[in-house]
Amino acid sequence: MISFAVLAVTIISGLLGFLFYVFLNNKTPRASKIPGPPIADKAEGNVPELREAGTIHDYLSELHDEYGPIVGFYLRDLYVVSIGSAELFEEHAQLFDRPKALFQKFEEIATPSTIQFQNGEEGRRRHALYARYFNGTAKFVSELSEGVQDTINSISALPANEYIPLRKSMFILSSANISKTAYASVFTKAELAELVECYDLWDARVENELIGESVEVIKGGKTDPVKRIQGLVKTGLSRRQSSGDIAEDKRFIDILLGDPELSSEAKFADALTMFIGGLHTTANLLTWALYFLADHPEIQERLHEELDSKLKSKDITKSELDSLTYLNQVVNESLRLGGVGTFAARYSEEPLLLGGYTIPAGTPVFHPVVYVMHSEKYFPDADCFNPENFSKENVKKRHPFAFKPFGFAGGRQCVGNRFALEETALALAMLIRTFRFEMVPDQTVEPFFGFVTRPVEEIWVTVSKWTETEESLLPSE
């Protein structure tokens, strides 16, 4: 849910387990003069330091803080570069191809046929095809509204002051919405719950492998969440195929099944990839947005006032969403501070000049987008939640590449970024219009910069009605 190919930045981008699967036969010569740390281990390069940092985001942040906006280091035998400034992002903005070596671990779940591994002509073809579907956001508003209303109904049925698990609730909402809008509801509620559970287990396993730990047994006695996720996605594709209800441009699943240029393996790989991208990015973005609002009641109050004054009926239209200035500032600031997808990467088959340094051909270049979005250089008091960062005046003052949460290079942004933003805005509008969110006391909320930025532990909230006038939005008893 906030952007699929935030797979570009999200799903794939965060696959930290790749570090232990990068084995290249050739040793790339180190580019001269690029700042960077000395090799920590002859066999592993700088992997021990990365492991100690805990995540790719944390390690890249440490390197850029110490060495500046461009830095080079080794992942085993693979020499890589990272660029940590909006100015260098702009210099590197023309490259489309993604370095497969950095993301080998994703093959485990989505196979080598996934769009995430497709470069050149085929990568561009698929990206354009899928983006056309997900960019048509107006057609989703009604169905997405139904999904959010189901969540409102479920919350309304809870006892007063019930503790609500925020992230879990947003994953339930996100999974239902992506299933309905893009996959023609081919998954049952029980299957969606299992997909979410297995995804979390796989996510945890990959992240734990980075620091040398493992997850061998998972809840319910299942030992292979990857096979279960793959099996459920294949079941969904089979159901849609056998239904005979396949129409071009009707649903994303229909586009996949009806594309004569895609192999059966590619159809499966992209169905899985886009489902996960649509699930975890939006769910985590909504989690962060509602947490920030609950933690800043004055901002939540101002947002509610805008919703109350500008929305004239229960049903929210696309044009109304676009007119809600402060809502969209809240969404962007939640995306900036929450982070979601933490980094992207590109490479060139030819040597190129970047930041005054020559980058050897084939060298992977990291784009640590969250590091830049958290930089005081571009966002004063960058650690604070402040929707005014996205006022028209402040946006004009800032470098245009300082806020690129869905990636930027080569036009290869997250395929579903518009869908994710619209879904998040609509959900926030409906939820905050109906409920006041408050934090359960005595919680410490910390981010973990993995596949996407997520809270280390569940966030617990309570809700209450704003005023009696809001009761018309709640289900009748």
* Total number of beta strands: 11
Secondary-structure arrangement, i.e. CATH architecture? Orthogonal Bundle
CATH homologous superfamily classification: Cytochrome P450
Quickly give the structural class: alpha+beta
Order of helices and strands: HHHEEHHHHEHHHHHHHHEEEEHHHEEEE
Shape from CA axes? globular
Cα distance, first to last residue? 31 Å
Tally of alpha and pi helices: 18
CATH level 1 name: Mainly Alpha
CATH names the topology as Cytochrome p450
The biggest beta sheet reads: 4 strands, mixed
Poorly predicted regions: 1-31, 211-221, 468-477
Strand residue percentage:
5-15%
The average pLDDT is 87
Number of domains in the coordinates? 1
Please bin the fraction of helical residues.
Answer: 40-55%
Strand order of the largest sheet: 1-2-7-4
Précis, in short:
This protein has 477 residues and is α+β, with helices and mostly antiparallel strands.
Features:
three-stranded antiparallel β-sheet, 477 residues, globular, four-stranded mixed β-sheet, Cytochrome p450, disordered N terminus, alpha+beta
